[in-house]
Amino acid sequence: MRATHSSYDKCAIRWFDSINRTRGDTALMTETGYSTGLAIFDSAVERAAERVAICYFDATLTYRDLDVISDALAARLLDAGFSSGDRLAIYLQNMPHFVIGLLAAWKIGGIAVPVNPMNREREVSQIFADCRPRALLCLEDLYASVVRNVDPGVLPEILIRVTAGEFQSRFDVRVLPPAQSCAGGDLTRFSSMETAAPPARAEPAGRDSALLVYTSGTTGLPKGAIITHGAFAFNSNSFCNVAQLREGEPLLGVAPLFHITGIVACLGSALVMAAPLILTYRFDAGVVLDAIQEWRPTFVVAAITAFIAIYNHPAATATSLASLEKVYSGGAAVPPGFVEQFERRFGRYIHNCYGLTETTAPTHIVPLGKRAPVSPLGGALSVGLPAPGVRARVVDEDGVAVASGTPGELVIEGPMVAPGYWQNPVETAASMRADGFRTGDIAFCDADGWFYLIDRKKDMIISSGYKVWPREVEDVLYTHPSIREAAVVGIADEYRGETVKAIVSLKTGMKVDPQDLVEFCRTRMAAYKYPRCVEIREELPKTASGKILRRALR
Q: Which residues, in sequence order, are CB contacts of 468 under 8 Å at separation 6+?
């Protein structure tokens, strides 16, 4: 394996002494034993059909259950006209239907498109217009509040509506909507689905597309990162190796499944280990603590904001978290001070990790049992060491590798990197270059091979682990009749890591309350995107050419 610094090879060999890094990506892929996500699932069914696969409140589904129900859904999709290569949009929370839909799509050669359940009409319409899904699997609540208001010209032909309460009987009011009947209308009850015979199975190859996971481009418009079956299989296996997961040990699925971290580090890892995946619909600290007590998971990965919420919950104790042997966080900067507080209170160290949608999640991970060093440049916690198969470099503006300790742009190569963005050759060419994926993140590597993030080259804001592009928020603000100019920046937030702030100027003679602008945005975008505070100024700072200076505002 090639690395930026010679000292890294020694560190990597000490860490993964079972992996000969000189064999290259092909040998590493072969070593995992699986070339596709579907092969991972088939292996789990073969060796552990009666083992619990999903825990969902008081419900459990075995790996055989997932196989049978996903067969039935696959058959229904085929009967409705779904074909190999078609896209199935999955617009759900963390619930069994998400896993079943994903597997059904793969079984008939489809591509799953996870859609953030916080997205509203405008955002959903953009994604549908871009990838043109043939089918949509969505919550009844989301259909009623969002989907039926989407532009009919981009709506999928096949619609399957489900309810959040299926499979379980608790209807925990902290997270679940009230009980709904599946008896009428177009609602589908998965628990009663049967098929006379399994549908004709597709056999996807490692290079075939498994997922389109949407991220934002520099313009703020969504981009669908193409995640191949091989990349999904490789990184799912890789994460299991690094976190030292054991066969069949329960995993807590806190990270959202529509997000690359949840779909790989949670779902992918569970499939690899034929393990139970514990789902709680959406995150609520009290519900998660109850699930830990009931199902005793040994592993969890989540954004640092989830751990902060758990830390501040009155029911959280060292005893209540005792089963969690392996604790990981990714998606947002992890404050070293909070890691220390968490460990002092609960006796559990939070291991950092880093990755992007385009790299199928983790490329850098703190190995289990090791402690991340703190950067001498600003006190940031290291994001970890490169994972197996990752070739990470820090380069200057000309793409030349820089010396140890020197900041530059982080570039990633390896079998986990997406081949491109869906039908977007311009953005693909800009980011997925011959010498590696340009992350847009400014980082440095120390003499021992640990990587640290300093800043983002682009203007992206990360709030609670979610990516927010200023331009998208600004575009919404500009639709308000009082706004003359708008600029959006990220500001420090103890809970979210960063939160969104808008600075605006008003048209002559116009008056508006800043809180009214917050509410205006809140009703038009996902919850993590809208600005929590708005500042009104007479003028915004600009360059000589008239471009608003976000950097000066920050």
A: 216, 460, 461, 462, 490, 500, 528, 529
Q: Is residue 87 within 8 Å of 183, Cβ to Cβ?
A: no
**DSSP type of residue 403:** P
Alpha-carbon distance 532 to 513, whole Å?
Answer: 13
Tokens of 34: 């699986």
pLDDT digits (tens, 9 = 90+) for 291-330: 999 999 999 999 888 898 899 899 999 999 999 999 999 8
What backbone phi and psi angles, to 5 degrees, belong to 88?
-110, 110
Cα torsion for 67, 69, 72, 78, to the nearest 10°? Answer: -70
CA dihedral 230, 130, 260, 378 (to 10 degrees): 120
**Of the candidates 359, 247, 291, 284, which has an alpha carbon nearest to the alpha carbon of residue 56?**
291
For the chain, residues classed under CATH 3.40.50.12780 are: 6-443
**What's the pTM value of the predicted model, to 2 decimals?**
0.83
Which residues of the chain are in CATH 3.30.300.30 domains? Answer: 461-553
CB 142 within 8 A of CB 118: no
| DSSP string covering 431-450 | HEETTEEEEEEEEEE-TTS-
| 43 membership: H or E segment, kind and range | helix 37-48
Please provide the distance, in angstroms rounded to a whole number, between the alpha carbons at the two ends of the chain: 39
pLDDT digits (tens, 9 = 90+) for 384-443: 999 999 999 999 989 999 999 998 999 999 999 999 999 999 999 999 999 999 998 889
Amino acid sitting at position 130: D
Burial of 185 (0-12, 13-18, 19+ CB in 10 A): exposed
Q: Which residue has the tokens 């060292």?
A: 318
Domain 6-443, classified CATH 3.40.50.12780, yes or no:
yes
CB of 280 closer than 8 Å to CB of 287: yes
Fold of 461-553: GMP Synthetase; Chain A, domain 3 (3.30.300)
Token duo for residue 277? 């995946």
Beta strand 451-456 with 436-445 is antiparallel
